Amino acid sequence: MRGSRVFVFAMTLVIVVTLIFLSIRGTLGPLESAGSVPLSVVQRLTGRTTRGVSGFVDDVAEFRELRERNADLEEALAVYQAELAELREKGADYDRLAALLEYDRFGPEDREYVTCNVIGLDSTGFVRAIQLDCGRRDGVEVLDPVVTELGLVGRVVKVSATGAEVLLLPDPNSSINASIRSERELTPSGLLVPVSPVIEPGPDAAPGDPGATPANPAAEAEEPEMEDVREDGLVVGQFTGDLVMSYIPVDAVVGEGDLVLTNGLGQSLPADLVVGQVMSVSLAENELWQQARVRSLVDFDRLEIVQVITNFEPVDVSVFEEEEDDEAGAP
Amino acid sequence: MQLGNTLGIPLLIFAAVLNTTLMPEFRLGNGAPDLVFMLVVSWALLADVRQGLFWAVVGGVLQDMLSVAPLGASALGLVLVAYGADATFGDVHRRNLIIPPLVAAVGTVLYHISLLIVLELDGIDIALGQALFYVTLPTVIYNSVLIVPIFRLLGVVHLWLQPRRVRLE
């Protein structure tokens, strides 16, 4: 009897280990893809119900908080609308100059999006990932960037005919090249000083009015010299759900509230996708670079609808990595 | 196919789907109740080893289809826990309140360690200390508490499917 139990256990182990081996090698791809189709249908139905109930409960519980947040957002919107007007002007200048240079660049207007519903979260708990109801049939491929109106969400890591799995930015295995973009005031001594992001509207200014009176009218009269600053680094997810940007040069002037955008380096993601805002900056333990805590505007726990950029083609650098391995292994 | 196994498949499908949709709403840190794990462990303690292992494989494969883990990664951990529970405690009475939480606590740790090893082999690098603190610890707490009603419920189902033989004298 005991021998029979051990035999059954051993056989089961052999089957499971074979499954893992074949799955890691990619042999079971079609089988996994076919199996996940009916599951994603059930998942979609359950997810919709769950989200409805949970959304209602959250709304009731967070009503007061939502009102305060709404006020904060309205204030922030006023600030950003002023910035938007300025950026639009700069964008128009950029388009003109780019046309003059015939600079071929994958810009926001070139992107093709597929809108997908989030139908579930990764069940292991160790990986921060979401499941979408769009798959290969909708044009979604592995490594496609996923975004919302608030910024970058992550990248597709697994795709079936009707579903896809997206590794989220806060996952520790997610790392992206990004830049901190800000405007700095150039002092007479040549030092760069952060500009306070807070703009107080004048008494008669409507929210978002680009002509709002600056907080200090004297400052406007002097018109200090401004300089656009860009500092590159690597944004990596943390187990706590935070984002940390490392490898920022020690002499870089980075301030709270600075915007973090993808920089397109490595051609793994399109440039200029919003990653988040700098919350705090500190010197790394080895004191060779600075690191910044970045807060994404995306609430990764409450994602419902996302967009996949389907026509961005990342550069496959695995060929170079293999060559490097070969060279390293050569006698 | 035995009746327990036939019942197990739809139950495990539903549990696997709930693990990805409803359970994350109760997340503490990164850990959440693992319905599939609790069902498999409960059935392994109630039924014979063959049924326990069958539920472990089916539940594990379903979990893996809904995650980035390679197929069989969760199944391996569940098979080890299901067999370990059966080999250590044998059939447990459906009213027992001590063994199921104990197995759930120890089993969750073993299951997660086995899952982490397979994920590492698949090239997904995860910091062990943080993973155990943020994912395993909250999941242990949830699973140890919630396994009690699930075990009692499955105990009734098990009794209904496989009534005990009584000798009349």
Largest sheet of chain B: none
| Strand order, largest beta sheet of chain A | 1-2-5-4-3-13
Counting DSSP H or I runs of 4 or more residues, the number of helices of chain B is: 6
* Count of spatially separate domains of chain B: 1
> What share of the residues of chain A does DSSP label as strand, in percent?
25-35%
Largest interface: A-B, 49 and 60 residues
* CATH fold name of the largest domain in chain A: Thrombin, subunit H
Your description of this structure?
The complex is a heterodimer of chains A (331) and B (169). By secondary structure, chain A is an alpha+beta fold. Chain A has three domains: 30-106; 113-167, Beta Barrel (Thrombin, subunit H), CATH 2.40.10.340; 174-195 and 216-297, Thrombin, subunit H (Beta Barrel). In chain A, 34% of the residues lie in helices and 27% in strands. Chain A has helices at 2-25, 29-61, 63-101, 217-222, 318-329, and strands at residues 113-121, 129-132, 145-148, 151-159, 164-168, 175-186, 192-194, 226-237, 243-248, 259-262, 274-283, 290-295, 305-309. A six-stranded antiparallel beta barrel of chain A has the order 1-2-5-4-3-13. Chain A is globular and about 85 Å long. Mean pLDDT of chain A is 79; it is low at 196-220. Chain B is mainly α. Chain B has one domain (3-21, 28-159). Chain B has six helices and no strands. Chain B has helices spanning 3-21, 35-46, 49-65, 73-89, 99-121, 128-161. Chain B starts with a helix and ends in an 8-residue tail after the last helix. At the A-B interface, helix 1, helix 2 and strand 1 of A face helix 1, helix 3, helix 4, helix 5 and helix 6 of B.
